[in-house]
Design brief:
The protein has 3 domains: 4-159, no CATH class; 180-243; 247-375, CBS-domain (Roll). The chain is 61% helix and 15% strand. The chain has 13 helices and 12 strands. It has helices at 20-40, 46-77, 103-133, 139-158, 166-178, 181-208, 212-243, 247-250, 264-275, 295-299, 311-314, 330-340, 360-375, and strands at residues 4-10, 13-18, 82-88, 91-96, 252-253, 258-259, 279-283, 289-294, 316-317, 323-324, 344-348, 354-359. The strands form 3 sheets. Strands 1-2-3-4 form a 4-stranded mixed sheet.
């Protein structure tokens, strides 16, 4: 089951919500209605607490969405595509199709979210003051003041120099101006790791102090920051290595092909067992590319039907397989394979003739070789 469900589009950007948000929303409503609002407005009716709790929770998640949307809209100005925005357990995340092109772009994109949260904090604060001035029920200004506080807290937290938080990305952009993107990422990730372990340590102290939920939450945030920072730093280094490598250097040239009319039984005995390859480009009787077949598709055919099922029946069609040229960079190839959810890509020449096959193993081998060279 997909852990997220689509809500639609906002400014042309797909918006999704992770199922974990349902749990967090329920906990937030319960906390607001049962603890926070009764302390702020002790004389309000119980039903009012729950109505205000639901509305304030909805406004909070809308604030998270606007925070991420700010990143996406500023990124768009610099030619960076926002592929999606997802709200999940620990907040929101924007998925971009590529890295920021310059350090200045990185700085502006990263700062956009916290600035939006600060703007929302100011806006909710002013609305709360107005609601109080016109003598609306206490729950209204109190809920607005809480929203102002929580948005300010969100901005301050995100401005911590802990990569990959916004503040960590701002720090990376500064180091990028002084060095290069890869070195800046490595430095930012190390600082982020230190900050993450500080959060975990604070979480442990808070938990032993009796505030177990808050302590666990801080520990979870610290673990997430450390894990994501390391993962993103590794990705940046890998993409830098692959950016200077072409598919022509990585691919297996002149791959063994199989005709679409070949049966699955023949494919197993004559090709898989005969060549020890695990995937084969499929061609028709005129030599035109049909698609790709691998062990994954073969396993879906029962042994009783292997002699009556053709390769053409089970092959992944060419339009569903990443297609690229020899001159495509390794980094672009990896991006396309990731988008397709594919472990292999087919390589074509200018006349759309098959010249090679690229696998995730080929890419991994190149990264391993570079790692050995770096360690020597």
């Amino acid at each position: 089951m997909n852990p997220s469900f689509r809500l639609g589009r906002l400014a042309g950007i797909p918006i999704a919500v992770n199922w974990s948000v349902v749990i967090i929303a329920a906990l937030l409503c319960w906390t607001l209605a049962g603890v926070v609002l009764p302390e702020l407005s002790p004389d309000s009716p119980t039903a009012g607490y729950w109505v205000a709790g639901v509305l304030a929770s909805g406004a909070f998640f809308a604030s998270l969405l606007l925070h991420e949307l700010s990143h996406a809209l500023v990124a768009r100005r610099y030619g960076v595509t926002a592929e999606s925005i997802t709200l999940w357990l620990l907040g929101g995340v924007s998925q971009f199709g590529e890295e920021a092109p310059t350090a200045e772009a990185e700085f502006r994109i990263s700062l956009a979210g916290p600035l939006a949260s600060i703007g929302l904090a100011a806006g909710f604060g002013l609305l709360g003051a107005f609601a109080s001035a016109v003598s609306l029920p206490d729950l209204v200004p109190d809920s607005l003041v809480w929203l102002s506080f929580i948005n300010l807290l969100l901005a301050m937290f995100n401005l911590l120099p802990a990569y990959p938080l916004d503040g960590g990305r701002v720090f990376r952009s500064y180091m990028w101006m002084r060095t290069d993107r890869v070195k800046a990422t490595e430095i930012a990730a190390r600082l982020g790791s230190v900050m993450a372990w500080m959060l975990i340590g604070i979480g442990v102290i808070v938990a032993f102090g009796g505030f177990i939920v808050s302590g666990v939450w801080l520990m979870l945030l610290g673990w997430f920051i450390d894990a994501m920072g390391r993962a993103e730093a590794t990705t940046v280094v890998q993409m830098d290595v692959l950016g200077s490598t072409t598919v022509g250097e990585l691919m297996t040239a002149k791959p063994v092909t199989v005709e679409s009319e070949c049966t699955v039984g023949e494919l197993i005995h004559e090709y898989v067992l005969g060549t020890h390859h695990s995937a084969f480009p499929v061609i028709d009787d005129e030599g035109e590319l049909v698609g790709l077949v691998g062990l994954e598709q073969i396993r879906e055919v029962s042994s009783a039907k292997r002699d009556e099922t053709t390769v053409g029946d089970i092959a992944i069609r060419a339009g569903e397989v990443p297609l690229m040229t020899r001159d495509t960079t390794g980094s672009e190839a990896l991006k396309w394979m990731t988008r397709f959810g594919a472990r292999r890509a087919l390589v074509l020449d200018d006349q759309q003739h098959l010249v090679g096959i690229l696998s995730a193993t080929d890419i991994a081998q190149r990264l391993d070789e570079q790692s050995l060279l770096s360690d020597s």
